[in-house]
## 1
Amino acid sequence: MINYEIVIIGGGPAGLAAALSARKAGVENILILERDAELGGILNQCIHNGFGLHTFKEELTGPEYAWRFIERVQKENIAYRLNTMVLNISKDRIVTAMNRDEGIIQIQAGAVILAMGCRERPRGALNIPGFRPAGIFSAGTAQRLVNIEGYMPGKEVVILGSGDIGLIMARRMTLEGADVKVVAELMPYSGGLKRNIVQCLDDFNIPLKLSHTVVDIEGKDRVTAVTIAEVDENRKPVPGTEERYTCDTLLLSCGLIPENELSVNAGIELSRITNGPVVTDRLETNIPGIFACGNVLHVHDLVDFVSEEAAKAGRSAAEFVQNSTAEKQSSEPVVLKAESGVRYTVPFTVDPGTMEDLLKVCFRVGAVFRDAYVSVYFNDERVMHMKKRILSPGEMEQVILQKKKLLEYDDLKTVTIRIEAE
C-alpha cells in the first residue's frame, strides 16, 4: 500500500488550489488523483473569458485560469496521476483507485480532500413528455462538443433552463451561426448570473421566458419542434399558453448536482439542500480527516471563490496531518442556521476556539428579494443588519464572522442568517 499525507480527489480548480495551499502550509507528500487525461477539470472547455478577476485581478479564459494553477503544481513537483478513477474511500482514509497502467491501487492517506466537482442534472429527472429523439443535449455536453471536439450539435436551438452554462451556450451557439430561438426557465427568476443574462442573451436579442417549461418534444429520429408553455405558481403548465418552435436541438441547463457518490459510500453526511457534505468551518466532514471544497461541497457561481475555498481546505488538511489543532478543539460547536428566505449556509457549524480570525459564510436565497436586509443573529440577538438592493438565487451571497466577536458572546449556541424586510 502507498502512503501519502494528503490525497486530493479531483484535479480541477478546487483540487489544484487545495494542493498548492497544503504545500504552502508545509506538507510535502501530496497526491492528486484525476480521472481525465489532463488536469484543469471543466475549465478546459470553458473558453469564454470572465475568470480570474478576483484571484489574479485580470480577465482570463477557463483554460488560461487552469494553466496558472497547473503550472504552479508542476513547478512545486506535486504528484498527480491522470486517467485514474477513484472507486472507494474508507472511513480510515484508504483510497482505492484504478488506472490502466497499475490496475487497482490502494493509498493510505493522512487526510483526504474531496474536490470532484459537480455534474449536470440528468434529463430523466425533468419529466418532459414526448419522444426521445436525437438532438437533445445537456448544455455542458454541447459546450464540450463545440469547444473541444469541434462539432456543432445543431443549427436551430431551444434551451430549457437559464443556468450559467445554458446562458453561455446560447451566446456560443449564436456565434457559431446557430439560431437560438428562446431560453425557457421554469422558475420566475433566472438561475444564472445577471452579467451572463446581459452579455449572453440581451446582447444577442435572445428572449428569456421566465415561468415557462417544455411541454412537448416532436420528432422520432431527430428533434423537429419543441412546445413551451407558461406555468402557474405550482409549476403546472397553463392551458392555452403553448408556443411551438421548430428546431433540431434542445439544450438542457437545469441545474448542477455535486458529484458525491464516493462521499455517500464513505458514510459522509450530506445536506438535503446542497447535496454536498455537511462541513465545519474547517471544511471537515463528519469523518475526521476528510475535507470537501468547491462544487462537490456546494455549487459556486465563480471559480475564483472555488479556489479561495479550496485553499482553506488545503490549510485545514495540512493542520490535521500536522496535529496542530487536536488540543484546541472546543467541546460544543456553534450551529449555523438558515432561515426566512436563506436556503442554506456553508459551513454548517463553527468552532470559535479553533476558527480562523475571519470566517466567510456562503449562502443562497430561495427567491428574489428587493431592498431587503441580510440579518445575522447570535442566539436571539441581532448583531448584523445589512441592506441589499437585490438578492437572487443565481448569485452566491456571503457574510463575514469575526472570531473575536464569537468568543466575546457568552453561551453562544446558534448563528442564524435571515432575510428581513426591515
Note: The chain has a mean pLDDT of 92.
## 2
Amino acid sequence: MIEGKKVIVVMPAYNAEKTLARTYREIPLGIVDEVLVTDDCSKDRTVAVAGEIGLSVFRHASNKGYGANQKTCYCEALRRNADIVIMLHPDYQYPPKLITAMAGLVSSGMFDIVLGSRILGGMALRGGMPLYKYVANRILTFIENILLGQKLSEYHSGYRAFSKDALSKLPLLENSDDFVFDNEVLAQAVYFGLSIGEITAPSRYTSESSSIGFRRSIAYGAGVIATALKFVLQKSNLARFRIFDPEGKKLCLLPCARG
C-alpha cells in the first residue's frame, strides 16, 4: 500500500514467457499489494510461468486483442478493490522500479492518470526505439495536442497508472479491443476533465519487446487521428460518439474472466 491505498499491478500478456519473470522481479513489492496477469491466449508458456511465480492469472479462451486484454486487467483489479492500478507490460520494455513514483503521483490526488513517457528526457532513441516509430510518435502527438488542447509529451506509452475513480468513471467498454484502445482512453480522460501527469520512463527495445508491425502501425496511426477528430466533433456538438458518452458501458458490466 501507499498512503493507505491498495496498489495493484496488472500485466496484459501475450507470448511473454521469456520476460515475465524478469519484469516481475523488479516490481517494488513493498508497496504493491497484488500483481495480476491477464493472458490473451498466448501460444507459449506465459500462463505456466506466471503460475510458477505464484501470480493470479486470467486467461482469455481466444485471442481478443490488446484493448480487450486491458479491459480484463482493469476489471479484475477493481473487483479486488484496488485504489491505484498500474499497467506494466511484461516484456521488460518499461522499468518496473518507477511504479513507486507513479503510484505516489496518483496517491497524492494531483493526477487521475500518470503516464511513463519515453519521450521526456530524450531517451527514446537511445533506448532503441525504431526511428520510424519515433517520428510517427512525434507527429501524432503534435496533432493530438492541437486537437485535444493538451501539452503531453506522448500519447502512446503503455506504462500507465490510474486511480480507481478514473477507471470507474470512463466508459472503457465502448473502446476498441485493438491497440487504439490506449489512445481512446486518453482522449476520454481529457474529454471528461481528468488530470493527466507524466514521468520520465527510459524504455528498452530488444528482440523480446512486444511491438506492432509496420502495417498495424499505419492502422493504429489512422485510428489515433480518427479518435482525435471524434473528440473535436463531440466537443463542437457536431456529432455524438459512444466513447464520449457519460452513460456508455463501464468496466462494472464486463463478465468475469477465467482464472
Note: DSSP finds eight helices and seven strands in the chain.
